[in-house]
Amino acid sequence: MIALVDEKKRVWQPREMRLCSEYCSLYHYKGRILTRVRLGPFPSELLKYVSAEEEANMVTVWRRWADAIVIYPDKVILIECAIRPNPGKIAQLELYKQLYYKTPEFDSIKHLPLEMELVYAIEDPATVELAKQKGIRTVYYKPIWIEEYINQLYPRERRGPIQPI
Fold first, then answer.
1. Is a pLDDT exceeding 70 seen at residue 102?
2. Residue 43 — pLDDT band, cuts 50, 70, 90?
3. 3-class DSSP state of 78
């Protein structure tokens, strides 16, 4: 059998979280940055079996999580990062926005305006346009280290679809 593609597997690395952490530290350093933030109410059907606070914290792993939330004195920013964005990231942000308002840990700051940001390294014009239509700020952020990863991708994966909306 002739291999047409290099069969060498890429080693998984948390690249999107690195992208998110670096982006936040560069552009949101004046805010309080939280990463991998659990969102939504505690699952009530599981809480009835919990008797201690430590156990309640374990139950929170069933909640969804956002890449980052940045808290400023006058606003909160919900951030989702993607090396290669897709329309599903927009749906995630919209869902996370709803879950944010149901998250007990944020009760004291829910009165602040909530903004959403989609951070990406490979542009997909249709996804970017759709995000803007939904009121989501889009940020193109491509640090130097990501180029090495992009070069490991198949050529069709190195760019987003060029079809606009």
1. yes
2. low
3. strand
**Residue 121 lies in domain:** 15-155
> Is 91 a domain residue?
yes
Question: Is residue 124 within 8 Å of residue 161, measured between CB atoms?
Answer: yes
Q: Is the pLDDT of residue 119 over 90?
A: yes
Residue 80: inside a domain, yes or no? yes
Q: Who wins on pLDDT, 35 or 165?
A: 35
Tell me the pTM: 0.78
Is residue 86 in a domain? yes
Q: Between the CA of residue 156 and those of 71, 145, 153, what are the distances in Å?
A: 37, 20, 8
Q: Please classify residue 145 by burial: count the beta carbons closer than 10 Å to its beta carbon, then call 0-12 exposed, 13-18 middle and 19+ buried.
A: exposed
Do the domain assignments include residue 6?
no
Spatial distance between the Cα atoms of 57 and 41, rounded to a whole number of angstroms: 12
Going by C-beta distance under 8 Å and a sequence separation of 6 or more, which residues neighbour residue 62?
43, 46
- The CATH number for 21's domain is 3.40.1350.10
Q: How many domains does the chain have?
A: 1
Residues with Cβ < 8 Å from 34, sequence gap 6 or more? Answer: 68, 69, 70, 71
